[in-house]
Amino acid sequence: MASEDEKTSESAVSTIVNLAEEAKLAREGVKTPSYAFLSICKSLAAGGVAGGVSRTAVAPLERLKILLQVQNPHNIKYTGTIQGLKYIWRTEGFRGLFKGNGANCARIIPNSAVKFFTYEQASKGLLYLYQQQTGNEDARLTPVLRLGAGACAGIIAMSATYPMDLVRGRLTVQTENSPYQYRGMFHALSTVLREEGPRALYKGWVPSVIGVIPYVGLNFAIYESLKDWLVKSKPFGLAEDSELGLITRLACGAVAGTVGQTIAYPSDVIRRRMQMAGWSNAASVVTGDGKAPLEYSGMIDAFRKTVRYEGFGALYKGLVPNSVKVVPSLAIAFVTYEVVRDLLGVGIKVSD
To answer: Does this entry carry the keyword Mitochondrion (predicted)?
Structure first.
């Protein structure tokens, strides 16, 4: 019978051998279960940190966008980006610029992590099916397949974190006269559940799904396709071999984000208004006659009433501050993701 010390020694040696073997396999490109799990966790962490840092950096513009989206047309407080930011600073101080950002980060961190990771997995699955269907093992994703992968990632990430988005909106527009005084994210969640029921946490979910398909889908499809074109055509010497410089990647992301958010923006406005429907005395909540908050029976009704009372341009309220934040937000997100990924030694990355 082997002694306890001998058993312990044999166990330690076995562990070291196993770790060495896993490291060797990892260097050779073979991912063991533990290595793959660790890579997944690191990838999720990198995406989450990137989302949190980038959203905090543009939090004042994000709050102004929401205030413009739900602004009462009979009581205009915010007439533009600069004026709006100055008004918030004057009436609420520095903290007012970041109101609701805690809940926003609590939503965007898991949202960003899930979105990046889901896109990778959906892309791999679609590419495998496409290669099987065409019989070409060297086939690559088409723009349409990338759009599908991006849409899938957007829907899953948005649905998983939607209650946090609703709470973030409520925290952003509440005032001293609001019906409920939310002290924070968790208090807001419990209050909505208690006073309005579980279904209230998903108000505006349908227009969100309709909006996220072109937004996230186009983001990934345009970004990936634009990068591929630049690598293959090498215009103006932007690509060296098969790699693009950081500035070029950021420019690709900015173009993709601008196109996607412009197309999907009306759905975002309707989603926000449906989330605030019936919530009287909130900051600038839109009304039909300036007195009572509008109630919407559904997405189509919300579109109809918005256009009827305020015109087609109301569907793009807040687009300017939203557009202004797209470029720095994407730039910071991509740079942060790259830095964190390198620090953690992530084995998988977007677009590999």
So the answer is: yes
